[in-house]
Fold this sequence. Notes:
The chain is built from 22 helices and no strands. The longest helix has 29 residues. By secondary structure, the chain is an all-alpha fold.
Amino acid sequence: MASRTASRRLPALPLLVLLIALAGGAMLVPAGFALATGEGWLAALFGKAALITLAGAAVLGAATAGFRPADPVRSLFLSLIGAYAVLPPLMALPLAEAVPDLGFRGAWFEMVSSFTTTGASLLPPMPETPAAVHLWNALVGWLGGFFVLLAASALLAPLNLGGLEVGNPRPVGKSAFAATPIHAAAEPGARLAAQFRLLAPVYGALTLALWVGLLMAGEAGLPALAHAMGILSTSGISPVGGLEGGQTGRIGEALMLVFLVFALTRRALPGTARADAATGRRRRLRDDEELRLAAVVVVGLAVVFAVRAVAAQAGGVWTQLDAAQAGFWAGLFTAASFLSTTGYVSADWSEGAAAALRGAGLGAPVLILGGLVMMGGGVATTAGGIKLLRIHALWRHGRHEMEKLLHPSVVAGGGERKRHLRTDGAYLAWLAFMLFVLSLAVVTGALSLAGLGFEAALVLAIAGLSTTGPLAGMAGIAGEPGLAWLGLDDGARAILAGAMVLGRLELLAIVALLVPESWRR
């Protein structure tokens, strides 16, 4: 009876207090791992930080137990923003002591990068950095991915935000469960708890399944777990410096490629698909616009890479076949990884697609991959970027306008949803696109004022706003100077940390929730 009463009271606590408590509890995982691997000093650091964080959460919980906000939806969204301000410093406490070379500011940047699923890591790979530290980094990224997924399905989707407004004719800012304005949306805390119970087992089971698959493919325990977490959360975090340092080869990459589908369409997860139940429409996965667009882009680039690899390869038929195979697979996996804003690079990439790009005179692969991460993955998923559904809406609108040039009196059909995609949906998609471009210009300008060159500032700004940290290292693959996160000063890192949070929350959703009058047309 007492446990049921406590479970009912937990959702009534402020969301930020619950998140602080969750962060403190999560620190016990690397503490236990360090203790099991004989690193008692590291276990003590994480245990001490966990105790401090949990004690702080208990005090805040007791002080705010009776708090009832006048506007629950806006209060909840402000808590989401506050999480990116409060949690990274707390998560950085054990990291700053475990890796003294980072210092607290470096540890804070590392945690912002992980919690926003950017994966712009400053940590050297194992064994230079203790395994428990890499486990903590991967765990923070994994929790950050689930946090984004939960917020998208429990708050943004019912209010028709976060990209769903493009394909849903329902008015923006109105609840799917109650025909009331945004200021009076009912029981957001209960909805958040319900979505947590629905998504947490699925998210954990998928991560476990991929981890087991990578173990069976020959990967070591911690790298396999970190890569599984990195795929499901799209953080791209690796304790061994990427897939090139792994041991699974194409078998492991094929497993990862399958699980990347969950970042390309929300319909692959039951909780996010249920968020659209209010529209009364359930389409098959193969009919999903985002997945079909992703398939066209990824397969098309893979074919181009394979053809270019053959053209750049001298030798006999078998040599050219090997080059085509390596180029196709490298292009397929890496393009899908960057389109989902994960950022893992295929182990075949350096000898396949990158060589083909150089040989064909197409320039640095960072330009092509930068375009992919700007497109982004599916709406209401863990992926960042502009989102595929918005790109699809803009494409449909452009195609319809081209048809009108030839046939001015043409009337396009397809039902209410497709008409919405071509009209209001395209308008909202264009607005989101322009806000992303404006943010990109502001961040690039700020980094240039901080002392970076234009090209470096642009690539880093794209990496931050799309939450794809590994993009910054891709310039080095093409023979150009690599863009190392370690080489940035504190001012540039602070700008990029803000860009990561902005890219994760989306400026469009912030404007809609905090200034709902701006949506009136």
